[in-house]
Amino acid sequence: MRTFRFFITICLLVIVIIPPAILILAIEDEPRIVRQVSLSPEYIARAKQIIDTYRDQSNPEITTINILSKDIDIAANYLANHFGKGSAKVSMTDGNALVALSIPLPEQFIRGYLNLQVTFAQTTWLPHPQSVQIGNLSLPNSITNLLISIFIDWLQSKPEFNASVNIIERIKISHHEVNVIYHWSPSFSQKKNGIPILGKETRERLFHFNSLLVNKSEASSINIVSLSEILQPLIHHAAIQSINGDALAENRAAILVTTFHVLGFPLKLLVPEAANWPIPTRQIITLDGRNDFAKHFMVSAAITAYADTKLSDAIGLYKEIEDLHGESGFSFNDIAANRAGTKFGKKAVASQASARQLQRLISADLKDSDLMPPWLDLPEHMTEPEFQRRFGGINEPIYKQMAEEIENRVSALRILRSD
User: pTM value?
Assistant: First the structure.
């Protein structure tokens, strides 16, 4: 009996003491990684090149995509900030990658930071976690292997992810870059149902907004339409749907459908089943009389609504720098359209209150002058020599002064004012 009581006492002590001890070891008061997110135009250019290589691949052959280690580090830090309001750092040596992550815990539950450090070792296929440390707590290899096994089982239960992983032959890690070697199969890109990157509810919302756009476009005999005329009925519909629903999700769907319509892209590129949906009448959409402004505005709004302002701003600036070396040149009025779209997308999904406020303002009335700030006096179509002569570069004070002026004009727009 005494032995049994002793055993019960030990079990109770383990149950009571071990969980707090684990928390003390795992959770820390300060983050070990503190970094600002930096998405430069050069980074966007390199990411675009990788995407173009992947997208254009059609031959069933072994192909390698090379990703610079610094780009993986930038991407990891961006994702940590975007999804967890934290920071990350990736360091690589030949055959190994060290991933360090600091994420703040929700203050309503517990204050502190989750500092995670994982070493990935190169194998004959995917990199394998070699050691995992959470704060001052080191996970035993047996637990790490168990978690990996559970993760792989979950991954294999998801056909869309399983198909993506199975085309990978091997991942090589070096100090300078990561080589992703994969065997592209034409059947992977020709699946009838595609990869469902959007959930069922989102696809249903897109269908409803697309149907509304079809009805509006068919009822109009005008081929050139202003963006405000397109957005107003869709956002008004979003407001109605948001009465007992999710205003953020409704706004995102309205923005995405509008963006595809402005660009002239079919929704089936994103939602394969949309190939069977009615197609809106083709129209030229303008913002303040210009088709390019409408495209800049809506693309920036969509990126912000589905990602964030950092990515939208980086892509917008990359596009202008790319134009600087082309025929169209650098245009500050394009930057103004980008910033207006970015701020529109941010307000549309910042919170339920913000989303509904935007819906109310637009439902009451919407004109192009509510979307695009004054721009006639902004320099445009500047060649590289002219841009260098007048502004020096994107880090020079005179450029930053112009950017601040544009920001002030955008912030003064009726539907985007903070008051």
Answer: 0.72
